[in-house]
Specification:
Phosphatase 2c, domain 1, six-stranded antiparallel sheet
Amino acid sequence: MSVEVTAGVHASWGAATDRGLRRTLNEDAYLASAPVFVVADGMGGHEAGEVASACAVDVLRARLVGRSATPEAVNAAIVEAHREVQRIEAEPGRAAGTTVSGVVLSAVEGVPYWIVVNLGDSRTYRLSRGALEQISVDHSEVQELIDSGAVTRAEAAHHPRRHVVTRALGATGAVDVDYWLLPVSANDRILVCSDGLTGELPDPFVAETLLAESDPQAAADRLVAEAVRAGGRDNVTVLVVDARALEGADDGSSLTTPRGHDEPDDDTLPRGSRPGSGTREAAR
């Protein structure tokens, strides 16, 4: 699908999801409706994860789709979704929750930006000038171990705590979400995915696939199919969003953003430039 979203940006996108080969439910949910493109991966046992991810997506759809999406509006929608997910009943001893990661197309003084949002270990990447860059920072125990030098990335892939996230929508207390403001560049391609993709396919293979498939729906379909073929140990969801026909955007070389709690304020650095953080735990 392709529409003019904001500030002269024409976006086209594709979306695909699969429950995988080992799960009875698909606890992933996604929203791909201009200007919002997000993935949510639920947790909480039984059907609580499925309900939590769907609840988060429903709130974001109601608050943001078809409207002017400012950073303040995005943050307000995330806070509301957090409160709604907190009301969901889960298994005894567990809390319902969900990751959320993705982008919202916005404009600041007429210049188009991606507002990148992240909580948990779903991911948002940008493919630009042939290079794939992870924008979001995982909120997970293994990411903190990697950042501290306790384990390597190869060791983290098989760590017994690799599925434990340290922040989630619906966790106890105030929402603790990361935001980035990323200037839109000509021919940007955004990838948003649950960990069912990144747990099965290495980033270089993902980058090759995104470069090989020019159509965003074909790219999303192929990535999901490849993740299932590689093992399909988890639900897998992929959104691919392309930006075209830009007016007024800069070269997209900088990454600046507020960091959100109840109000967006502090700076959040790009992937690889900040240590891991977070104290709340939720395990799938």
